[in-house]
Amino acid sequence: MCGIVGIFYKGEGKAGPVGQVLVDMCYQLFRRGPDSAGVALYGLPLEDGFVVRVDLERPDLDAAEGEVLVAIDEVSSVKEASRRTRSLRLVVTTDADGKLADWIEERAPGARVFSIGRSMEIVKDLGAADDVDHLYDLRGFRGTHGIGHTRMATESRVDTAHSHPFWARPFPDISVVHNGHITNYHKLKRRLEMKGHRFATGNDSEVIAIYIADRLQNGESLDDALRASIEDLDGTFAYLISTAQGVGLARDQFATKPLLYAENEELVVLASEEISIRKVFPDPGLVPRELQAKEVRWWLK
């Protein structure tokens, strides 16, 4: 049992307190996932660079950061660099044609690249949403949209790398949060690996992100990709997928995992439970509706 949330501000260039909203909504779902929490935050896209989020899984943080910077300088250039606890945030000139994450991890032991995007950055850690916010000041982020997750681990180990959201590596700006279990994960993973895709973890949720990104790369619309996932993913699931342009969601044919949405002319809000929407958005005109079995929805700028 996990909790998933999302927020999308309608209209080109529209923005709001995405970080605060996601933290507060995740807080309401703490009992659904006490192991870890995380968010994928989307702001206005950089025109000449990429935001890179790297987790440093070593005690010698200064040395680890130095190795990451040296590795990047071989294929790109660092324009900005900052670090809070283990999380290194960088703005670089290029993602080296999708190879930057692998390049960093191969040359800087203990470095795990959690996201690369022109508008997206993923921040996640162990503990509740408030704990993660305290470490990384998530509430201070304003942006266009985002998704969040509170995790109760059921099939893979409890650590930051296996926490949600998952980046659709190496595709910039695509992330997923998921509640449920994908029973044909290994079969789908092998198929995607045969097409050249690389997985960073053993978590079944990661396959959803790469599955959707692969279909988008092949020219499908988000609507088509979401509908195909209902047929191709086995198990019980409700998930949110986010791209630079917006968010989409899907629920399996059994409708065993809850997922609700509410919208007005200004925004769309998504959550596993109604309390997460009602507590953060008490407006009585914003009425939560439950996504039905095999239903998909999406909102784009």
Summarize the structure.
The protein has 301 residues and is an alpha+beta fold. It has helices at 18-28, 61-73, 100-107, 129-136, 185-194, 206-217, 222-232, 274-280, and strands at residues 3-9, 36-42, 50-56, 78-84, 87-92, 111-117, 120-126, 145-151, 166-167, 175-182, 235-243, 246-251, 260-263, 267-271, 289-290, 296-300. The protein has 8 helices and 16 strands.
Question: How would you characterize the overall build of this protein?
Answer:
With 301 residues, this protein is an alpha+beta fold. It folds into 2 domains: 3-43 and 126-300, Glutamine Phosphoribosylpyrophosphate, subunit 1, domain 1 (4-Layer Sandwich); 46-118, Alpha-Beta Plaits (2-Layer Sandwich), CATH 3.30.70.360. Helix content is 27%, strand content 32%. It has 8 helices and 16 strands. The strands form 3 sheets. A 7-stranded antiparallel beta sheet has the order 7-2-8-1-14-13-15, covered by helices on one side. The two termini are 31 Å apart.
Rg over CA atoms: 18 Å
Task: Look at the structure and give the mean pLDDT.
Answer: 95
Query: Could you list the spans in which at least 5 consecutive residues all have pLDDT below 50?
Result: none
Q: CATH topology of the largest domain, what is it called?
A: Glutamine Phosphoribosylpyrophosphate, subunit 1, domain 1
**Envelope shape:** globular
For the termini, the CA-CA separation is 31 Å
Most strands sheet: 7 strands, antiparallel
Assign the CATH class of the largest domain: Alpha Beta
Query: What CATH architecture label of the largest domain applies?
Result: 4-Layer Sandwich
